[in-house]
Amino acid sequence: MNELMRKLLFLPEQGSAYATEVDRLHFFVITVTMVSAVAVAVVALAFFVKYKRRSERQTTPHVEPKAIHEVLFIAVPLTFFLLWFAIGFPLFVKLQTPPKDAMDVYVQGKKWMWKFAYPGGPSGVDVLRVPAGRPVRLLITSRDVIHSFYVPDFRLKQDAVPGRYSQTWFTASAPGRHQVLCAEYCGIGHSAMLAEIIAMEPAQYDAWLAETRRSTVATAQDSPEDRVDPRTSLSEQGRLLSGEYGCFKCHTVDGTRHIGPTWLDLYRKAEPLQDGKSVVADEAYLTESMMDPAAKIVAGYQNVMPTYQGRVPGPEIAAIVEFIRSLRTDAVRPEPSKGPVYVPVPGYDPTSAR
Amino acid sequence: MSQSLATTPPAPADAPAYNPRNYLNAEAGIASWLLTRDHKRIAVMYLVVTTLSFALGGFYAMLIRIELLTPGPTIMSAMSYNRMFTLHGVVMIFLFMIPAIPGVFGNFFLPLMLGARDVAFPRLNLLSLYLYAIGAAIAVYGMIHGGADTGWTFYTPYSTTTVTKVVPILLGAFVLGFSSILTGLNFIVTTHTLRAPGMSWMRMPLFVWSIYATSVIQILATPVLGITLLLVAFEHAFGWGIFDPARGGDPILFQHLFWFYSHPAVYIMVLPAMAVMSEVIQASARKNIFGYKAVAFSSLGIAFVGFFTWGHHLFTSGQSTLDAGIFGVLSMFVGIFTAIKVFNWTATLYEGAVKFTTWFAYFCGFLFFLVFGGMTGIALATVSLDIHWQDTYFVVAHFHFIMVGSVIMAWLAALHYWWPKMFGRLYPEGWGLVSAVLIILGFNATFIPQFLLGNYGMPRRYYSYPERFWPLNVASTAGASLLAFGFTIILVYLAISLRWGKVAGPNPWGSRGFEWDTLSPPPTENFLENPVYTRGPHDYTEAPEGAEVTHAT
Asked: N or C: chain B end with fewer CB closer than 10 Å?
């Protein structure tokens, strides 16, 4: 039944369990729609046949509806509409809530290609390899205009907005290839902005990843304007970039209070704000704080940070965010202190940062 | 201009039913048209300019469909293609669909239905026509000098960084907005102040109710569009950082502002279509509407709720999950108001005396496009289904069904239903039916494949596409050709009927709509005597007294 409906409606293959669920709702909606449209047509046709005009002088009675008619006209469709919404909205919530154990991939759209970066490296263009059966969270942004990351096989789409990160996730159910298209109009290369997701056997994927990371002759697919070596891990790139941009003049990585809040354990922390609210320091907040530092100031700090809007390209933001995420004390706690309380940053000297 | 044809009255002996002293021949010469304050003459001029715009938009549409006949380049470059779909959207929306029905049929029939001699502000009415012409001229200048490649939605930061000439197009749309606001204002004041004795609110024809609701949206929402378009123009021209994040702006802010107008704008287009159909169904069934109040108030309901649904265009933009849910539910309420209308129209046929005419054929087409387009709209509002369909051909097909389909059906139904009243002559019924069938079939053949293309995953605004989408695109182009052929037939026979059509008489359909109470074509002062209304419109409980139905005195 599923296969038959899918083929009838020209839907692409169902590359994830989520796709199958959404399609089930689709079939339900389309079936009710068709049945009710046909019902309206049949009633209209029956009326037409029964009440055909016989004479040009024919009169008709004045008919007024009973209240129950109008109530039914409202209640019956409303019931179906709300039922569909009750099924459809939780599915959307699910799509908006990546599982905690999902692996992350940074996605950046630019005219007219998709760049993918794994936190531990490598990064690539237009081909995203993922392990089948494992959830993958995509952190999506754009370097120039708005693009939209669209994978028909996963029934998934998320706009890539410059200056912001948005997220979505999927779990490929089996090894295979899935086309990625750009769905938001972005200029003459819009329809050529295609990419591919290759879902691999998890073991194969792990082997591929290890091999690629080991390889010193990995092809650097990034564009020339990327200033750091794309072969190193993303957090390592972020560390170098943070030094270059002067972040360490105000932010520490060891938990000490300085001009700005420390980056240690900052990721996912609930930060109290000046206006009494609080915010979770996720990717979106960290990015926003770089682009518009005055928007949400942590209580107890001054608004002194300059904006990095337009100065830091998208992949470099991703690298810095990834670096902040790597600064965690989890690794050594909860045992009593046996050494440093943070993951040491090799070769880093805050005083020499320019 | 058509007056030289239409204003030549037939010899009175041949046609006693043709009103020899009518608004078309009351004055002669081009100046008498360009300086007229007669709402009927302004309506006829609107008919000419909106028809020209429709032809221009249709020409762009055909070029788009021909380009998409093959997966690769067919007849133009990617840049030309991007301009084509932008111009198709801009022309069809701002120059045809928004002004067409209110400008032509609203202007002509709203005063006639209320028993008024003209609209409340006749000079303002002429000004709105001139603003339309100025706005159109600026936009056409922009098209000739480079055109824009942004899509009619002008999404930032693309629109503020593109090298094409977006500024003239934006300014054209800005000026057109004023035309729209002035027309809406005029209709609201006319409805409030110029109702003839006996014309209570609950006796107003449903056409008036819907046009009134449309006018409310026009004056409330259009200013927001004007401001937004100006901001885009400023950012493009002077580099202000409002929407472009590279200059400190917020691109999503634009989407909120834009859709705050452009979603209600859908109802600016659809409500007049519903207005026409409420009249047409009663005249077809020769019966009063089933549920007058439900249909009347659902128009106001659509106008109201339509303001709170704009966020359903932003489901994939990164808007919060809660917002998406709220906008999804609110969008369904618009569907409910539409469902009320659909059921009441269908129930109007019950116990009626239905006759199949060209305009009834368009009513059937309208009902089909509205039900099917509306139901796909509900499906889109369930949020999770929209994620797959957003920005694909499914959405293109959806709004072409619900918005374009219903407006074109209503525009053609109105043109045929009121043609005898406007020009005093009948169109050829046989040709009318042939072209109606061609157009309804052509429309389905064009857009049903596009629904399937959207399911299949083809995004919109694609110059080239993967080969798996090829067969459905060929089907769609074939349908579009059928559509173009149908429109050509109509243009030819209506033009011929202006001079050689059978003389219609005041009320060839036996309709009890108030606009039929006067002569055909109507005299400049609309009614020979001041009308007084003692009953509601479309009351068919008594047999007609004679061949000619005159207004109640």
From this structure: C
Global ipTM: 0.90
CA pair distance B393, A191, nearest whole angstrom: 13
User: Contact, B361 vs B436, CB < 8 A?
Assistant: yes
**B247/B193 Cα distance (integer angstroms):** 50
Give the closest of A26, A58, A73 to B339, CB-based: A73
> Is A157 within 8 Å of B316 when comparing Cβ atoms?
yes
B382 shares contact with chain A (CB less than 8 Å): yes
Q: What are the residues whose beta carbons fall under 8 Å from the beta carbon of B430, sequence distance 6 or more?
A: none
Residue B191 has φ and ψ, to the nearest 5°, of -65, -35
Structure tokens at A282: 């996720």
Judge: B349–A48 Cβ closer than 8 Å, yes or no: yes
Q: What residues of chain B lie within 8 A of the CB of A187, using their CB?
A: 82, 149, 158, 162
Query: Between B251-285 and B292-305, two packed helices, what is the crossing angle to 10 degrees?
Result: 170
Q: How far apart are CA B47 and CA B109, in angstroms?
A: 13
Report how far residue B328's alpha carbon sits from residue B313's, in angstroms, rounded to the nearest whole number: 10
Half-sphere CA count of A56, side-chain side, radius 13 A: 9
Of B246, B391, B543, the CB nearest to A183: B391
Contacts of A12 in chain B (CB under 8 A): 456-457
Of B245, B455, B457, the CB nearest to A162: B245
In the numeric block, which tokens belong to residue A97?
């809530």
Q: Can you tell me which residue has the tokens 């509409």?
A: A81
Q: Are B378 and B312 in contact (CB under 8 A)?
A: no
Kindly state the DSSP code that residue B9 receives in the 8-state scheme.
P
- Partnered with residue A200 across adjacent β-strands are A131
Q: What letter would DSSP give residue B101? A: I
Domain ranges, ordered by start, for chain A: 2-51+62-96, 103-214, 234-352
Topology of domain A103-214 in CATH is Immunoglobulin-like (2.60.40)
Q: What angle do CA B113, A56, B354 make, to 5 degrees?
A: 75
pLDDT means per 10 residues in chain B (553 residues)? 48 69 90 94 96 96 96 92 94 95 96 95 96 95 87 91 89 95 96 95 95 95 94 91 88 94 94 96 94 94 94 92 94 92 94 93 94 92 94 96 95 96 94 96 96 96 94 96 95 94 90 92 92 90 61 40
Beta bridge partners of A130: A199
Task: With CB atoms and an 8 Å threshold, state whether B391 touches A33.
Answer: no
With a CB cutoff of 8 Å and minimum separation 6, the contacts of A254 are A262, A264, A341, A342
Is any Cβ of chain A less than 8 angstroms from the Cβ of B319? no
- A142 - beta bridge partners? A109, A162
How distant is the Cα of B26 from the closest Cα of chain A, in angstroms? 33
Interchain CB distance below 8 Å, A82 and B286: no
Site from A23, A85, A279, A307 to mutate, B interface, most B CB atoms within 10 angstroms: A85
Residues 6+ positions from A46 with CB-CB distance below 8 Å: none
Note whether A90 and A121 are within 8 A (CB): no
Separation CA B371–CA B517 (nearest Å): 33
Distance of CA B286 to the CA centre of its chain: 25
DSSP 8-state symbol, A298 = B
Q: Are B340 and A62 in contact (CB < 8 Å)?
A: no
Q: Which fold has domain B37-517?
A: Cytochrome C Oxidase; Chain A (1.20.210)
Asked if the A234-352 domain carries CATH number 1.10.10.10, the reply is no
Q: How far apart are the first and last CA of chain B?
A: 36
**C-beta separation of B287 from B539 below 8 A:** no
Of B247, B378, B540, which is closest to A60 when you measure between CB atoms?
B540
Identity of the residue in B328, B456, B462 whose CB atom sits nearest the CB atom of A89: B328
The residues spanned by each domain of chain B are 37-517
